[in-house]
Amino acid sequence: MLLSIAFCAVASAMATSANHIAANTFMDQVFDDMRVLVPQNGLDPLKAVPFTFIVKSNAITNRDLKANFTQGMLMGLSTLIRLGDCSYGTFGVMLKLGCYGTLFPIHAVINAEVTGDSIFGSSHEITTATSVLPKSLVLIEVVGYRGDQASLTHIGMVALAMNTTVIHGRLDLNAARFKDFENQLQDQLANQLTEIFKGTYGSLLQSMVRKTEVTEANFSEEFLQRMIPRLDWPAFLQAANKLGVGGDLPSSAPTDVRSDAAVLQAIHHALLEVEVMEGELICPETQRRFPITNGIPNMLLNEDEI
């Protein structure tokens, strides 16, 4: 059967990150899973928290501007992607992985009532669109220990740049005052994004991280030589790649592994040391899904399938 995991295999990828491919595959799987889970948990789109700020007068021909942002949406949290190669390292029994993701897909559209952009002080409504620029990044760091669950240790923005335009209505502000308006609006959105990553988004990612464990298993060359001919190699390779542990496996089943210790170790790890705690098995013939809970697959059929 093929193994399809609904949650990312964090510790698994770290345990085999002898090269960038495994680490990158892990992070790509994280973002692939988040594309599904983030909208399911109401985070994309996400209602913006209302806020108010004041742009001070800077000349006798204008007055203080009050901007009351009442409703709007943050979008794009489910479309983050990896940027560049991930870093990895081992410290004794501890495994650490760090990856950058681009925040570029994130944008916000928010309505506001503004008062004071003219000398007359009348109020009117505007709609602003703010986009995160490509150089903006989020850093995700994960630590795991052999034989134990992995843990998300850090998620946070390390660079954030935005661009704001008024897409409905008009703001009658000079260049300096519009820059102040733009900076305050972007500061408010940056604070909201920080809280999202620290709160709901981070909690969701943490729950994914803790779904897979890596355990030690005694290495037996004799056992592997007996087992390899019995494996459905394409299915085994697909499952290993899905978990992010297939980077060191050959594309076809080896005929003589005795001369390649590295291949034996890679097969040993993927076959015996990676334990899926939450996910599902999928039958390649019927596409029937069998859930895995606490590391135990439920292979029972429904009454109408017996």
UniProtKB/TrEMBL annotation:
One of its GO terms (molecular function) is protein heterodimerization activity. GO terms for biological process: rRNA (guanine-N7)-methylation; tRNA methylation. Residues 1-18 form the signal peptide. Keywords: Signal. The keyword Protein biosynthesis does not apply. Transmembrane segments: none annotated. Belongs to the TRM112 family. This is Multifunctional methyltransferase subunit TRM112-like protein. It comes from Tropilaelaps mercedesae. The lineage of its organism: Eukaryota, Metazoa, Ecdysozoa, Arthropoda, Chelicerata.
